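PROTEIN DESIGN WORKSHEET
SECTION A - STRUCTURE
LENGTH: 208
TOKENS:
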């Protein structure tokens, strides 16, 4: 590997490793197939890259020698390019996956909670409606997780993805519990037990 390639390797973003991870399972896949798999697996505990991001990372991985592709022949009505991981790519991915220093803490960006935080600017019933919508959406996601788990069940190559999906099932169940508790909290405010729009001394609600 040249010094330029080594530099690019060190700069690989998590999305590149995620795409390479999708390629690490048996078989060759098109960019579209990788996107479908990300939507039915990765998005439940990490995120699903856009199709344009997937193709951009595939090009980068090929430049590094971590992935290789072949174009379909004339037997297919529509030409497709299929990608596979290389030995160098598998070795690099194994090294990255084993490096706990790169894992980092989980990042939570909860759009609903941002709006709850600004609840003093909203109607209470609208806040409750948003939580209700979030509950319905989370129930749908939980059903999708369970469908993915059922699909992966019994496939030896998908043992570890199944563990990740099982964690995601628990996370969605916890999210449902938290949202129900939030509804209870909002009901408490509606009954006048607390006024979130006022602070006793007018300062921001922070310690110190």
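SECTION B - SEQUENCE
RESIDUE ASSIGNMENT:
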């Amino acid at each position: 590997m040249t010094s330029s390639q080594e530099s690019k390797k060190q700069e690989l973003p998590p999305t590149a490793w995620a795409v390479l991870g999708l390629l690490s399972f048996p078989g060759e896949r098109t960019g579209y197939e990788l996107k479908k798999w990300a939507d039915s697996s990765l998005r439940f505990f990490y995120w699903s890259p856009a199709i344009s991001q997937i193709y951009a990372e595939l090009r980068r991985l090929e430049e590094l020698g971590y992935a290789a592709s072949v174009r379909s022949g004339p037997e297919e009505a529509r030409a497709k390019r299929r990608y596979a991981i290389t030995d160098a790519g598998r070795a690099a991915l194994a090294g990255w996956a084993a490096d706990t220093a790169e894992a980092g803490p989980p990042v939570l960006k909860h759009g609903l909670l941002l709006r709850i935080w600004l609840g003093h600017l909203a109607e209470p019933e609208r806040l409750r409606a948003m939580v209700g919508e979030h509950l319905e959406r989370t129930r749908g996601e939980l059903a999708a997780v369970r469908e993915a788990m059922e699909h992966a069940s019994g496939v030896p190559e998908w043992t570890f993805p199944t563990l990740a999906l099982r964690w995601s099932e628990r996370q969605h169940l916890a999210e449902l519990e938290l949202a129900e508790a939030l509804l209870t909290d909002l009901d408490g405010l509606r009954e006048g037990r607390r006024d979130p729009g006022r602070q006793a001394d007018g300062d921001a609600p922070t310690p110190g």
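SECTION C - NOTES
The longest helix spans residues 159-190.
Helices lie at 3-10, 14-23, 31-39, 51-64, 87-98, 111-117, 124-152, 159-190.
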